[in-house]
Amino acid sequence: MSGERIEAIELRGLLPEVFASEGAPDSEIWLKDIDFKRGCRIIVEAASGIGKSSLCAYIYGARADYRGRLLFSGRDASTLGMRAWQELRRCHLAYLPQELGLFPELTALENIRLKNDLTGHSSDEEIARRLELLGIDSRSHFPVGRMSVGQQQRVALLRCLCQPFDFLLLDEPVSHLDAENNAVAARMVEEEADRQGAGIIATSVGNRLRLSSFETLKL
């Protein structure tokens, strides 16, 4: 799969198992046929508990407790083995979870390099430039466990961009950022997505990523 781009992520009647017995909320995504095409810019808006984090986890293969079908360019996710998922995550899907998944004892730069040393995707100069743009270059050698949540979000975002991808999944990526850092983060995300011809799917419960253009879907 690594030699082929993922042109579309296709949802066919997708619904979290938890809603199967409780009843699905009114949604523009659940139980619908939705195609996220490479190059798209999507903001998924939802209240807490409606399944926005679940949606990202389903697409990334971290969870499979859903009904319906999820396909990557026509290939059903339920048929993918461990190697295929590893390849998807290495070459096609980049993911910033709400929990961030940083190593608190490591510095900001060490957390970023853990990913970049595996992919070789970003140069040292590019990483340094992004740290500066997001105003955390002075914290690059500081343990992330001693950083604010907003600073940690910026570190996790930079780490997320250090790989090839066809789709970038961002779960509440700017929930703790002010307007200025939100705008910088959005430009950075769009710049990298444009460079790779990739799609962006970002969730929001209020403070949305300030993309220059996007389609909004209500979950």
Strand order in the largest sheet: 6-7-8-3-9
- Mean pLDDT, as a whole number? 95
- Global shape: globular
Reported by name, the CATH topology is: Rossmann fold
* Name of the CATH architecture: 3-Layer(aba) Sandwich
H and E string = EHEEHEEHEHHHEHEE
Biggest sheet architecture: 5 strands, parallel
Low-confidence stretches: none
Give an overview of the whole structure:
The chain is of the alpha/beta class and 219 residues long. It has a single domain (8-218), classed as Rossmann fold, CATH 3.40.50. The protein has 7 helices and 9 strands. The strands form 2 sheets. A 5-stranded parallel beta sheet has the order 6-7-8-3-9, with helices on both faces. A 4-stranded antiparallel beta sheet has the order 2-1-4-5. The radius of gyration is 17 Å and the shape is globular. The mean pLDDT is 95.
Secondary-structure map:
Elements: E1 8-16, H1 17-22, E2 33-37, E3 41-45, H2 52-60, E4 66-72, E5 75-76, H3 82-91, E6 93-96, H4 108-119, H5 124-133, H6 149-160, E7 167-170, H7 179-196, E8 199-204, E9 215-218
Parallel strand pairs: 3-8, 3-9, 6-7, 7-8
Antiparallel strand pairs: 1-2, 1-4, 4-5
Helix pairs in contact: 4-6
In short:
The protein is an alpha/beta fold. It is 35% helix and 21% strand.
Structure characteristics:
single chain, 219 residues, alpha/beta, Rossmann fold, five-stranded parallel β-sheet, four-stranded antiparallel β-sheet, 21% strand
